[in-house]
Amino acid sequence: MSVAPAGVAPATFELKSANLPLVSLLLKSADLQALAEELKTRFGDIPDFFDHDPLVVDLTPLPPDAQVDFPALQRLLRQHRVVPVAVRGGSETLAAAARDSGLAQATEAVPLAVRPRDEPAPAPVAAPAPAGALIVDKPLRSGQQVYARGRDLVVMSIVNAGAEVIADGSIHVYAPLRGKAIAGARGDAAARIVSLALEPELVSIAGVYRTSDVPLPPEVLGKPTQVRLAGGAEGKLVMAPLNTA
């Protein structure tokens, strides 16, 4: 084994430990066709939800005899703009197959989980303050969608029924909100939704949502309202009138 002489440091590189945020995909089934359909359902209408984020595939839920086509899995995930770099958990057979496909074995990573909307999330990790808010001045018609990645969203005009506003931070609509509003899209349970006239088809914060199937209380319906998440990511949405006096 070659050993570098004492006191001589490489001039072209340094090796340091790194603590990086990673997205984690908790793989519950080896059926990639079903996975493709569910990914399309969840993220197909938000094509820029991911931005080539590094991803760890968590194999823990799979049975020991499961077989995963890792090359096909990697191609599928890259279609949704995530870059699989490692796996964690699972059987030795699965780990070996993952290594053969070029994936590393992660043991100490603490990733950010990707989960269905109806599944409870772990306690959120404090995130850095978002960049300056994305401001939209024009009315949003049915079928239009705006996504404020990594920041708050401010809409100065009406969000019509059939339109959708999404933000990783909070959403402020200084007009009627009649479409869908999804705040804390990446799990920020401290995000808020504020509207001067709350009449939404759906409001959601950190995956906890409420649809128009459940009528809003008369004290907030069509009125200035703030929506927040009480009890963290496993809590419930609380709607309170705004004092605009």
TrEMBL record:
An example Gene Ontology biological process: regulation of cell septum assembly
Span of domain Septum formation inhibitor MinC N-terminal: 13-84
Superkingdom, natural source: Bacteria
KW Cell cycle (keyword) present: yes
Septum formation inhibitor MinC C-terminal domain span: 135-229
Keywords: Cell cycle, Cell division, Septation
SUPFAM superfamilies per the UniProt record, alphabetical: Cell-division inhibitor MinC, C-terminal domain
UniProt xrefs under InterPro entries: CAP/MinC_C (IPR016098), MinC (IPR013033), MinC_C_sf (IPR036145), MinC_N (IPR007874), Septum_form_inhib_MinC_C (IPR005526)
Quaternary context: Interacts with MinD and FtsZ.
Membership in a protein family: Belongs to the MinC family.
Function: Cell division inhibitor that blocks the formation of polar Z ring septums. Rapidly oscillates between the poles of the cell to destabilize FtsZ filaments that have formed before they mature into polar Z rings. Prevents FtsZ polymerization.
Protein name in the entry: Probable septum site-determining protein MinC
